[in-house]
Design goal:
The protein is about 20% helix and about 35% strand. The protein has about 400 residues and is an alpha+beta fold. The chain has 2 domains: about 190 residues, Rossmann fold, CATH 3.40.50; about 120 residues, Beta Barrel (OB fold (Dihydrolipoamide Acetyltransferase, E2P)), CATH 2.40.50. A hairpin with a 2-residue loop joins strand 20 and strand 21. The protein is globular.
Length: about 400
């Protein structure tokens, strides 16, 4: 493959590169330079009869994306993540704020700058793939080269397209109609076409959502491999927890048009700071805290279950305001036959199994502790049944205190 399609070393970016300050991400001094900078972006839609009703889609959005980073926007449908991506692409115009791509201002609410989509150094893959049905595979691939930002002559464009199709395993299908491709092959064609224009930034709007579960899992691996090899900065939009956790260098949780929380996948999964961030990144139990205090260096939380000891966060980082809750993942809810949990530690409670679902290598249990139900994930070899009386152990290190 020609060097045209490679940037940098092809190594994935790792480490804790997202620093959350007032719900924005700032680059550290040792970080790579930001390729994308979004500052105080806001967008409102007018809906209803004669557009009299306003819906605020984006509220004071600020973040940076380092060069070569795989940056994911995750959140439920309607949270504003696709609108944000479309503003970066130039398909929607914000009302205020600023967007820079590769140090160039492509949108400014102050100066009135709005660079058109075709002049921005981006490639984009949509949820529907947006493949031309009347063109062959090769004709779809060369379209951006022939009519895009940096036009390439017919002979050279076909040569480059054939190279890219070979990389994606589509070379033998170049004369086919898109309707003769599987969903996974159409997705690879859309990605090949986006990369052929040699963009500085790749934008992906839920590109795997139309695939079945097995194909989606395969394409996650393939997409991340290509992104690492090419080294292209990528902003990815999804509501799928598995995609967000497995593919990202940085995860940014969006809810109600605002950035709620940002960090690495491990940070958001194991040590979320908000209940929204905890929910978006996987199944979680949330236990309301009635009172929080420290006792001999140990954090104690009074809950409806009783007093729970927590050791996961330094006391100077504990949230002081808001409705505080304990979050604990189902895999950290340990279930024992009665009497077996006595040596576990301080956080042991009597419970009854009110839900049991066998899903192969593990079981999803619902255990009732008083009036509170907790989800637990245990080995599929464990033999628990509905109605069993059990003990539940909650490791003090497995908790995060969220708001």
């Amino acid at each position: 493959m020609a060097n045209r399609f490679f940037r940098g070393s092809g190594q994935a970016l790792t480490g804790d590169r997202a620093k959350t300050e007032s719900f924005s991400i700032e680059s550290s001094e040792s970080a790579r330079p930001a390729l994308v900078e979004v500052r105080e972006l806001a967008k409102t839609f007018r809906i209803g009869v004669r557009g009299r009703e306003e819906v605020c889609a984006l509220r004071d959005i600020s973040f940076s994306v380092e060069e070569g980073q795989f940056f994911t926007l995750v959140g439920p449908s309607g949270c504003g993540k696709s609108t944000l991506l479309r503003c970066i692409a130039g398909l929607e115009m914000a009302e205020q704020g600023e967007i820079r791509i590769d140090r160039q201002v492509v949108y400014s609410g102050v100066t009135g700058v709005h660079v058109s989509t075709d002049r921005r150094p981006i490639g984009m893959v949509f949820q529907s793939y947006a493949i031309w049905p009347h063109m062959s595979v090769i004709e779809n691939a060369v379209f951006g080269l022939r009519f895009g930002r940096d036009k390439v002559d017919k002979h050279k464009s076909h040569e480059l397209a054939e190279e890219m199709l070979e990389r994606f395993g589509l070379a033998s299908m170049s004369s086919r109609s898109p309707s003769e491709l599987s969903g996974g092959q159409q997705q690879r064609l859309a990605l090949a076409r986006a990369l052929l224009s040699n963009p500085r930034l790749l934008l992906l709007d839920e590109p795997l959502s139309n695939l079945d579960a097995e194909r989606r899992s395969e394409m996650r691996v393939e997409l991340r491999r290509v992104q690492r090899e090419v080294g292209i900065t990528t902003i990815y939009v999804t509501h799928d927890q598995s995609e967000a956790l497995s593919m990202s260098d940085v995860l940014t949780v969006v809810m109600g048009g605002k950035i709620v929380e940002s960090g690495t996948p491990r940070q958001l999964y194991f040590n979320p700071r908000t209940s929204i961030g905890a929910r978006v990144t996987g199944r979680v139990n949330l236990i309301p805290i009635k009172r929080l205090y420290t006792d001999g260096g140990q954090v104690r939380c009074e809950t409806e279950l009783g007093t729970i000891s927590v050791s996961s966060r330094p006391t100077d980082e504990l949230p002081e305001t808001g409705e505080r809750m304990l979050s604990v993942r189902p895999e950290n809810v340990h279930v024992f036959s009665n009497g077996e949990g006595e040596i576990f530690g301080p956080n042991v409670f009597e419970a009854r199994i009110v839900g049991a679902e066998f899903v192969g290598n593990h079981m999803n249990l619902t255990v009732r502790l008083g009036d509170l139900d907790l989800a637990a994930s245990v080995s599929g070899e464990d033999r628990f049944s509905l109605g069993d009386r059990v003990s539940v152990g909650l490791p003090s290190s497995a908790f995060s205190i969220v708001v």
